[in-house]
Amino acid sequence: xxxxxxxxxxxxxxxxxxxxxxxxxxxxxxxxxxxxxxxxxxxxxxxxxxxxxxxxxxxxxxxxxxxxxxxxxxxxxxxxxxxxxxxxxxxxxxxxxxxxxxxxxxxxxxxxxxxxxxxxxxxxxxxxxxxxxxxxxxxxxxxxxxxxxxxxxxxxxxxxxxxxxxxxxxxxxxxxxxxxxxxxxxxxxxxxxxxxxxxxxxxxxxxxxxxxxxxxxxxxxxxxxxxxxxxxxxxxxxxxxxxxxxxxxxxxxxxxxxxxxxxxxxxxxxxxxxxxxxxxxxxxxxxxxxxxxxxxxxxxxxxxxxxxxxxxxxxxxx
Length: 318
Hints:
By secondary structure, the protein is an alpha/beta fold. Helix content is 28%, strand content 27%.
């Protein structure tokens, strides 16, 4: 089987928006190359060392590739993608140059090449992302493995926004929590929550296609077999209940309508973990949280991306 690859040349700040455009256009999977991942790479004691001089990578900008089945109406899809990418400027996102081009990829050759570039990466102190085809021996008895299929899915979970969220989960989950993961994508954050001791996790994504993609990764992780994953536009189709932790790794433009929706799903002490926030939107999201009654307790940055941790204030018992 051959695949049609549609590639968008863009900028770091538009990567997630362009990925969403390609998925909504029918892409079966996404591959991202981002120069910022190299520029912002900060090795530490929990990170696998990388010699970037020996690894092919972009020097500037980013490329987002979507993979489509062979019989897709390619000219129609390309036109739609091109129009929507150009429209991102209306949302304050620089997608330049925004060029869209295509190639044909043989599935067997593509899969082989893909696997050469993905290896286990220890993302945080206790969490390591492991491609499903790799056999990995933990370096620390406390280390937890998140097994993903980054083939025709959503990458390895090491994008700066995902790293910020995994680090926040590792700090703020204590065990026994009820967790809501809004816009779960690959499911990596939901899996991490279970590995870190969450009692129950509800994960959502925009439609059934995205839900099925997430479920494939959940099924690779024994700890994640009881995660409930459902299709929902933000929280519109989530049964109202109170969660101890709400996680959302999405663009600021999507977080803006989400924050007011959360009020029916929280209780005093609920933690809110947000990421996907480009640097020029960080203050906007912070103020939005404050306006909706949340207390911002932590802001973290990795490259141009921000993560924010907030909580519902707990009244003093006098």
